[in-house]
Write a structure and sequence with these properties.
Strand content of chain A: over 45%
Structural class of chain A: mainly beta
Number of helices of chain A: 0
Oligomer: heterodimer
Radius of gyration of chain B: 13 Å
Helix content of chain B: under 10%
Strand content of chain B: over 45%
Shape of chain B: globular
Order of helices and strands of chain A: EEEEEEEEEEE
Number of strands of chain A: 11
Shape of chain A: globular
Largest interface: A-B, 25 and 23 residues
Number of helices of chain B: 0
Number of strands of chain B: 11
Largest sheet of chain B: 6 strands, mixed
Helix content of chain A: under 10%
Distance between the termini of chain A: 36 Å
Chain lengths: 115, 110
């Protein structure tokens, strides 16, 4: 089945130790997103790629970076994780038709803990 | 900026109807969505409605849109325990990424 796959499901890192979260998709969608979701909060968009074009949200900290080496894969790099970065990180894809339809397909998320 | 508001909790008995409400501020919203998130999982698109529609029905789900009041609701008929989840309302203008509400946690009591 075509899907969005996130690895790992759970990730534990130490304060200040760089960590990379992975996302892959078999949907061949041209847009990939990374969201941060904290408990009882709305998912917060960090950035998204439209094909190779990177779009950073204005309030995304510099500590968060992303790479998209090809259509199928997208990575979230947290350079120096702080305690406040502990959250669920959700990857999503979409294939906007004329920029109107924003149906998102989500992975199961990676729950990041920072010790 | 755009804002989407939802009540945080709803509790219903199994077999009853659930109504989850959402208000939004962006009058130029083109599509409005309902996503479902089960514990420890990602969000799953349940249904969506285009802004020129008043109602959309899909099996047990009915979406009502009052564009004048910027109010969206999701009705789940014959609610089952498997419907227990967090339901997110989201809106899009088509030119910007989705804006989500904080989610309504639906608890279904057997």
């Amino acid at each position: 089945d075509a899907m969005v796959i996130q690895n790992p499901r759970y990730q534990v890192t130490q304060f200040g130790k760089p960590v990379t979260l992975s996302c892959s998709q078999t949907l061949n969608h041209n847009v990939m997103y990374w969201y941060q979701q904290k408990s009882s909060q709305a998912p917060k968009l960090l950035f998204h790629y439209y094909d190779k074009d990177f779009n950073n949200e204005a309030d995304t900290p510099d500590n968060f970076q992303s790479r998209r080496p090809n259509t199928s894969f997208c990575f979230l790099d947290i350079r120096s994780p702080g305690l406040g970065d502990a959250a669920m990180y959700l990857c999503a894809t979409s294939t906007p038709d004329g920029g109107v339809d924003e149906k998102l397909f989500f992975g199961s998320g990676t729950q990041l803990s920072v010790l | 900026g755009e804002d989407v508001e939802q009540s945080l909790f709803l509790s219903v008995r199994e077999g009853d109807s659930s109504v989850i409400n959402c208000t939004y501020t962006d009058s130029s919203s083109t599509y409005l969505y309902w996503y479902k998130q089960e514990p420890g999982a990602g969000l799953q698109l349940l249904t969506y409605i285009f802004s020129n529609m008043d109602m959309k029905q899909d099996q047990r789900l009915t979406v009502l849109l009052n564009k004048k009041d910027k109010h969206l609701s999701l009705r789940i008929a014959d609610t089952q325990t498997g419907d227990s989840a967090i339901y997110f309302c989201a809106e899009s203008t088509g030119n910007t990424p989705l804006v989500f509400g904080k989610g309504t946690r639906l608890s279904v009591i057997a």
